[in-house]
Design a protein that fits this description.
The complex is a heterodimer of chains A (about 290) and B (about 300). With about 290 residues, chain A is α/β, with parallel strands linked by helices. Chain A contains six helices and 18 strands. In chain A, strands 1-7-4-5-6-3-2 form a seven-stranded antiparallel beta sheet. A seven-stranded mixed beta sheet of chain A has the order 11-10-9-8-12-13-16, with helices on both faces. Chain A has a two-stranded antiparallel ribbon with strand order 14-15. In chain A, helix 4 packs parallel to helix 5. Chain B is built from ten helices and 16 strands. The longest helix of chain B has 19 residues. Classes of the chains: A alpha/beta (about 290), B alpha/beta (about 300).
């Protein structure tokens, strides 16, 4: 393996390509200037800095050769400001950070994505397809509120994977919540449970439901959960802002990907997040 | 490791390594974890009267070339009511120091009262007054560079608190000993030095400061010689009677020894936890090295203190 590198300080790069996947989600790609290769694992994230505004954690959506992409959904002031930016505008990249997904196994794979939670999982899907020397089954279950929020749907439908879509308003695929869909799908699939690895990312209340379903099938050790609804400040596990109770693990460095049996011991999981001031807020109250 | 037992005034801790404020200490879980991974005591992030969001990011950045961190978190904290409640979840065996900031003597007293109200049963090791945060306007350094204000704050706080009061000093001052003397004359039980050194970064592509707050503070290996000199000066001026807790850039056991030789009786560790997958790796390296040194030199921690002055 050749030498790899990492950006400790934000490196400001011009937006190389930008397109809108839907009206509030932009895909921004950047050309990494270095000769060396950067090691990036699906589930890892960068801190994206909009000079003069703020810096926010964004999962890597795609990375190939020297092009790195991010899918950014406008949910807060900074993400909304970033998606307004056009090509050539400078954005600071700091990372990659965090503990990504573990791909080191020969199992069949179920990938469950809710809303913008598809962002790191798109990178995962491509890595699993490209790096797989074995023939394995890849099942993608993607849910969103409505058809236009099923990000990258047309791309996924062309890939050699099974896809299963659901929308809350019934505008595409199964009409209903993703958790209902998973329950039946997993029940059908898991006759040989140990042959499956489950990956998921999305709103934390959805992740919580998936953990419960996995636990019912004694599959929590085969479940890899990527947390997404969390405040991150430093990115390298030192400031303490994102530690989760009561394990005392950081989301920014020990996570954002955790195994189901670890996250099952986190009291706050699916219940409370922590804001920039360190105080807890309940997930249910922010419309998730 | 009996040999590592450390006395700070009239409190005893199992070893001289203390978690520095502002690193990893924002939640009860991380404080508990750090103590159980081997530190002698742990210090919370600085707590104020009201919640504060702090400054926009980037606010904490690692500088690998100098193994240091620049930060402008800006005293982000949930306020003393919420944090007071949070501390109730810490087991009573954890040796805990609560760091505080405020803009007036009265406000310091209010924060202390509030923390005490929620933690009547917990035996806190000390309150550490943050009179030295370099980047929060009208707080921290603003109150910590005037000997008169420092004297007034410490006096008032000492009147209300039976828990030892430690005063954390800023290096961003011409003569640190003047503030140290003021704090001691007002009854401070120990001095802690140093807080971060004023610093900043500029991005050459956007041609703008990088930190959300423009200015911040530097910690980590780059500032070790600065911290060491501060402790040396304080010991020289104040003598061995007042306990000194040294910090700034400690990342290996030799650094701990240097600080003790300069006059510290204990040290705080912060930025050095960067790049360790688990804090106990660093903690046990430091403790083992320190223990072997003491055995090899046939000297106790107390005997070693301030020897560089002899």
């Amino acid at each position: 393996m050749s030498e790899t590198y990492h950006y400790n300080l934000p490196v400001c790069l011009p937006i190389f390509r930008k397109y809108m996947e839907n009206e509030k989600t932009a895909i921004l790609s950047f050309l990494l200037p270095e000769e060396k290769s950067m090691k990036v694992v699906p589930g890892q994230y960068f801190m994206l800095w909009l000079p003069g505004d703020d810096e926010i954690p964004i999962a890597v959506n795609h990375y190939q050769k020297k092009t790195i992409s991010f899918a950014i959904c406008g949910v807060g002031p900074t993400s909304n400001a970033i998606i307004q930016k056009e090509e050539k505008c400078l954005i600071g990249l700091r990372g990659p950070f965090g503990n990504g997904f573990n791909l080191d196994h020969n199992k069949n794979v179920v990938i469950i994505a809710g809303g913008i939670g598809i962002a790191p999982l798109r990178f995962l899907v491509h890595q699993l397809i490209n790096n797989s020397f074995i023939s394995r089954k890849i099942i993608l279950i993607q849910g969103a509120r409505t058809k236009t929020e099923l990000l990258f749907r047309e791309e996924f439908e062309k890939l050699p994977i099974s896809t299963d879509f659901c929308t809350e308003d019934g505008s595409y695929g199964f009409h209903g919540l993703i958790s209902e869909k998973i329950e039946t799908t997993l029940d059908n699939l898991l006759d040989k449970p140990l042959n499956w690895e489950i990956y998921t990312c999305g709103p934390e209340l959805m992740l919580k439901k998936i953990l419960v379903i996995a636990q019912e099938h004694s599959l929590e050790r085969n479940l890899q959960i990527c947390l997404a609804d969390r405040y991150i400040r430093c990115g390298f596990g030192i400031c303490g802002s994102c530690f989760i109770d009561d394990l005392g693990l950081s989301i920014c460095q020990d996570g954002p990907v955790f195994r189901g049996d670890v996250i099952a011991r986190v009291d706050d999981f699916g219940k409370f997040g922590r804001g920039a001031d360190g105080s807890k807020y309940p997930f249910a109250n922010i419309g998730k | 490791m009996k040999i590592l037992k450390t006395t700070i005034g009239n409190v005893e801790i199992r070893n001289p390594l203390i978690l520095a404020s502002g690193i990893l200490g924002s939640t009860y879980s991380s404080l508990k974890r750090l103590f159980h991974e081997g530190l002698g005591a742990v210090t919370t992030k600085s707590i104020g009267f009201k919640p504060r969001k702090g400054y926009p990011n980037p606010s904490v950045l690692y500088l690998p070339e100098i193994h240091s961190i620049i930060n402008a978190v800006g005293l982000a904290n949930p306020g003393c009511v919420k944090f007071g409640k949070e501390l109730q979840k810490i087991d009573s065996d954890v040796k805990l120091i609560v760091s505080l900031y405020a803009s007036s003597p009265e406000e310091f007293v209010s924060v202390i009262d509030c923390i005490r109200r929620y933690n009547k049963k917990t035996e806190l090791l000390a309150f550490e007054l943050n009179l030295s945060c370099p980047h929060a306007k009208r707080l921290g350094i603003a109150v910590g560079t005037d000997p008169e204000i420092v004297r007034e704050i410490v006096k008032k706080v000492k009147r209300t608190s039976r828990i030892p009061i430690w005063v954390k000093l800023t290096p961003n001052i011409t003569d640190i000993t003047k503030i140290g003397e003021a704090a001691v004359s007002a009854g401070a039980n120990a001095l802690v030095a140093i807080n971060t050194v004023k610093a900043m970064l500029i991005d050459i592509r956007t041609k703008k400061p990088i930190l959300g707050n423009i200015r911040g503070g530097l910690s980590g290996q780059a500032i070790k010689p600065v911290g060491l000199r501060a402790i040396y000066d304080l010991y020289e001026t104040l003598g061995s009677k007042i306990p000194l807790i040294g910090l700034g850039g400690i990342s290996k056991w030799e650094d701990v020894v240097e600080y003790i030789l300069a006059g510290a009786c204990a040290v705080e560790i912060g930025s050095a936890f960067t790049n360790y997958s688990s804090p106990n790796i660093l903690i046990s390296k430091l403790l083992k090295g320190l223990e072997s040194y003491l055995i090899h030199e046939e000297v106790s921690l107390e005997e070693l203190r301030g020897v560089a002055h002899e």
